[in-house]
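User: Structure please.
Assistant: Input sequence and predicted structure:
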Amino acid sequence: MTSPLRRLTLGLLASAALLAGPAQAADKLPVTASFSILGDLVAVVGADRVRVLSLVGPDEDAHVFEPRPADAKTILQSRLLVINGLGFEPWAQKLAKSAGYKGDTVIASKGVKPRAMHGDKGLGHGHEHADPHAWQSPNNVAQYVRNITAALIKVDPAGSDTYGANRDAYIRELQSLDAWIRTQLASIPAPQRKVITSHDAFGYFAAEYQLRFLAAQGVSTESAPSAKEVGELVRQIKREKIRTVFVESMSDPKLVAQLAKDAGASVGGSLYSDALSAANQPGSTYLLMMRHNVTQLVQGMKQN
């Protein structure tokens, strides 16, 4: 049997552990990221020194996100706000301003060369604007990581060595990812490097690795193609002998299913574009997301 003294000692130790947990959590730097991919990058660089919350979580769409009162509270409790920029989440800075946020804000895409979206390259757009999906290139993400690291060091100078070491290690992983992607795509002849997706989110990926992406929707999932535009896309799929059409994790699969049916193509695996997956799915981190997407794309393009 356990003695009364031992029971008392164990009880005190348990109480101390319960008290220590919140204290240790409170010591972590609170950071808010606008959406899940940025949240993952902050978590990698910050590791145990940060507590990061993403306003738009896994499998959620930042294009149509509507902030809630609780999100304003989350930002107010943060020391750093991380946003993508390039017009991806205009609601984020508006939310911070309306909440009275006084902390630091970092635009993760700062220093990335924006890709212009033209009306003749994305259905439903008759003007030119910046494509915000810069994270689809691992080389751009290396710049994201540098910007995030600099912002964390500014807010938490004591963690400089940790943040710098994590940055360098992760950039090496991004370089390995880039090399792996090039090796995978080398098996696909240039004429076959054509892809149909539900949403125009892969422009940076296409430019980096010499692929052609066509999308039923424009750069935002809010836009919807007209019947005429869908008809044009179906004719193009047939003309270019594209055999696989891909749906994205956040998009309504009905449009892609109809495209595939009308064009005599098959529906390929799901791609992750603007959000990570849940933890039990194959796109739960940026590195896993990219490897999953490339594997699916290669399998589909081999059928062209």
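The longest strand covers residues 29-35.
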